[in-house]
Amino acid sequence: MSTRANVVIKDEHSSLWFYRHSDGYPECTAVSLIEFLSKHTKGSYRPNVGQSAGWLVIQGHKEYDSETTGWKVGAYEPTTGRHGDIEYLYVCDLDKMSITIYSSSWDGVPEPGKFTVNGDKMLGVISVNRTGYTLSNKRLRKIINNSADQFFSDHVAILHIGGNNDS
């Protein structure tokens, strides 16, 4: 069975939802979103929801090796809200240049203006800057480091891994 996820791209003014039908686990999706935010920190993308969301769709298309598989354009599909079958929720904050990762409880619909529901568990926060990323805790480092290290060793000269909270 596929690992499904929702991704929310947000700034101080608005937010957009995306659905990822497969490979929604952090080792894949978080690394993809680190790449997405790293382009913002370098000035390649504008840090507002309206202009950057299209780039996420294009990045998802590239993840499918530019091949369309029937009706799918790529890994990230625009959607109207939270899906009931997700295992992970990723909130990409363009103002903070961070990704907050939650494991999903599949329990209900978020209140207006909210992204999470009761039972969702925050796994950690990834902060992205011009030279790399910082993971908020050891558990998240174990999940993501190998995949993200490969991306950054291919694309960035310096990698920062650390954080204050080692819980």
What does this structure look like?
There is one protein chain. The protein is built from 3 helices and 7 strands; from the N terminus they run E-E-H-H-E-E-E-E-E-H. With about 170 residues, it is α+β, with helices and mostly antiparallel strands. The chain has one domain. It has a 7-stranded mixed sheet with strand order 3-2-1-4-5-6-7, covered by helices on one side. The chain starts with a strand and ends in a 12-residue tail after the last helix. The model is unreliable at about 155-165 (pLDDT under 50).
Q: Percent helix among the residues? A: 25-40%
Q: Mind telling me the C-alpha Rg?
A: 15 Å
- Order of H and E elements: EEHHEEEEEH
By DSSP (H or I, 4+ residues per run), the number of helices equals: 3
- First and last CA, distance: 31 Å
Q: Biggest β-sheet, characterized?
A: 7 strands, mixed
| Assembly state of the chains shown | single chain
State which percent range the strand residues make up. Answer: 15-25%
